[in-house]
Amino acid sequence: MIRQQKAGLERSMMQGMKPSSSVSSLASAEKQDVTLSSLTHYTRRPSAQGVGPLPQTGRRHEDRLEERQQEMGEADDRLKGAVMPKKKRKKKSLITVNLSGTRYDIIRQMSEKLGYVVAKEDDPNSYLFWNDCFVATDRISEMKSFQRINHFPGMGEITRKDCLARNMAKVQKQLPDDFSFSPKTWILPADHSLLLNYAKDLRAKKKTKTFIIKPSNGAQGHGIQLFRNAEKIPQAEHFIVQEYIDKPLLMDGYKFDLRIYVLVTSCDPLRVFLFDDGLVRLSTEKYLAPTEANINHSFMHLTNYSVNKHNEFYEKGDSLSSGSKRSVQFFREYLRQNDINDGVLWQNIGDMIVKTLIVSEPHLLHAYRMCRPGAAPGSDSVCFEVLGFDVLIDRKLRPWLLEINRSPSFGTDEKVDYDIKSALIEDTIRLLNIKISDKSRNMAAQKAEARKRLFRQNKRAEGPDMTEYEKKRQSIEKRKEDLKETLARIRKVSAREDYENRNRGRFRRIFPPDDRGRQEHYVQLLSSTFGIFMSGKAPAMQKEIQRVYNNKLKEVDIMDMLAECEADEKEGKYYTGGPNSKPRGPKPLLSMPVSVPSPLENDDDEDEEMEDEETESMSASGSPSMGRQGYHPGRRPGSSGRPDSRMSNDGTSSTFNSRPNSGVGGLRSRPTSNMSAANQRSRSLSRTGNGKHTPLQRSAVDDNFLLSVVKEREDELTRKTLVALNEMRIKFPGKSDQEAEYILDKLHENWKFHKPRIASYWLVKLDSIKRRKVIDIVRSNVRAVLLRTWRVSDVDSLKVYRIFNRVFNRLLWSHGQGLWNCFSSSSNSTSWETIFSKSSENICEVELNCCRRIVQLCRDCLLIVYQFAAEAKSSQSSTPHHGSVDDRSSTGQSISTRDKSLSLIPPNTQTMSQKYSKLYPTTRTQTMGS
């Protein structure tokens, strides 16, 4: 067979076939498992650069052609047989959800709607776990930091009926006024005698009460019974007995209760959200006061869905406002139609929920920290929980807590169920803020923490051999660490609140509340509950509660404290000067350096020479200027040519230049002309009886004199800053200053019309980043004013700029509420001026006026930005013409501040379309030619 193929190949070669035909024939030979080397002994290895030209030899043309075809076939075979390396596809990471523990399909639907992938099996590495039943503490302990599970350990302290009754009884005994929303409850068999004594007292008063008994760990209405006689209640069973509320609020003659949904996202610290909708569950038989005749009518006295759905009169509604199951929003509208204030009732329900969770917080926090011993306080919680509160409203519109469900039903038998529960689950998963980067970020944090523990140095404990200097330094270092930890926690809480406010959907945060008075009351109750349930750890926990929940320090305050600590370290304020407390390193500078005095006969000449030099260094107008090059006040004529190393280049003591936030370190100018005469007087006063200076006397005089001179100079520059700020104006893009002032006047004249729109724009439409950009328009120009007025390179070291920063941060306080409060004519406790009244820092009247002007500029800037956005939005619906706002926005001008002498627009200011493209994503700017 091989010989026949070879002969056929040779015949085709002799007949002058094309090379492509030979290659195809070789390919067919390859299919029959015949190698090229077996066809002929003339096969050669082709060169590395490919098949070269035919060799010029004396062989026959047919032989050379055959050899050439064989080389081409071998190269083609080698290319076909080569295995090309497959490009590895990068596996796309996805957020997986483990739903093997739940039977509700609505959870899978909402997870997929948010872009999550449901794991096909019980994947232990999923990001989210959802279970319908209780979760063991061991499983929570094994959870990774990036994972979330929908149950807390210790939540049974309020979800089990007997535990809730026991804990409520304890706090009602200590705080009866705050925890009176739970009916009288007895736990059987332990409290059977107390129940009988209570019934006996009622008979003595000729009163009759109805009692309802429930299994301690029951659900769905199983085992619930009503009794008119307490003596007939069996005592051997594990039941709870409650006073039956026999005067409930009725809807169309039917008794009902509310299923309120509450989300707890964290217990360390506690964060609680109330869903603004829920279920109204009506009974299916019209209500009558309980008697011996109707006491067994479950469809009249019980509102459980699992009980009433078996009644033939149960009505399935096709909307949220009909049927035996309706929405809470319908109920609130029903109250408003009957002239009942539903807002007060809803607020009372939220207050009741917060107080109930405050009772559970000591148990939750203890159980969670036991399960997560390595987690830092305040870190992201791996647990969350959706609770179902069953609330009954009586005729006096007073809410009563019946029970709490830790696994509320998410069945969607009716339309009202699907509409409410789908929104609830969707908003819950979104509020968890699960990101794909959580896994890598948490793993990196664990490695960093392990590395920190590995390389941590053993701190030297305090002992009798520890010097006073070392104790002071150690205390400052500890304070710095505490401040940094507090600062990190405040920033994290701020970022979390910003995300929650943007993604909470139909949830409303009820703890921690926004109301400061309500917050302080809740914190007081929280401290009391820790004292009731955890008396041994109560003092330590109460301090932690005050630090976490009632912290009044803001981020800027902590930054100031850190700067003070660093200044103390730099200036050596922890050096006490004792015999055994010698500081390490060079001695800190405490006064002006003193050079070696020259002979007495040269003193008068030197005084006159220094006086002349200082006079020449000042300009005629009195403005500061740099001194003569090479001149140093600390150098005397008889000293060496090198100035003292502790003297700065501008002739002031380095002690003052090193003080942060004093506003002196940036001054490069010489003192005023009055310094020469005062300096001469100070020398005459500091001479001793023999005509020479005493170093100690001269140092004290120089220090006091320099302090007064620097203070005067700071006051002068602050006044100039105020003048510059008063001359600044907010510029409208494409309009003159007169037109911008006219726009502001019109906005103030029609303030009642624009007020709700500006409030919605500033507080709702703009997020924290865009609000900060609006304030930064004024901030950047104020910074430019300080650079020009104070003539410094580091504006951050100025005291006045630090004061301004506190004002800017206050205006952004509470998601922009700080600036919005400035539009109110009445002064209140949230005014920005309170940051100085409560501060230990002294603020002069000129600095306060500067702050007032800055607040006015920020107000004008907000109004101009609002008007620009409104005009740009209105221009979208109409064709732009020459001279419109859209046309003028392309000229490269931006909203900025200007004064009379110099435009304060920074050199790198972007055009309006570039700078505000992020502020107004829906605004389109067009050029003149469009």
Note down, in words, how this protein is organized.
- The protein is an alpha+beta fold.
- Among the domains are: 96-149, no CATH class; 469-570, no CATH class; 709-872, no CATH class.
- 47% of the residues lie in helices and 9% in strands.
- It has 31 helices and 17 strands.
- Strand 3 (128-131), helix 5 and strand 4 form a beta-alpha-beta unit.
- The two termini are 79 Å apart.
- Residues 20-29, 587-600 have a biased composition (Low complexity).
Keywords:
alpha+beta; ATP binding; globular; nucleotide-binding; 47% helix; tubulin-glutamic acid ligase activity; 4-stranded parallel β-sheet; 17 strands; coiled coil; tubulin binding; 930 residues
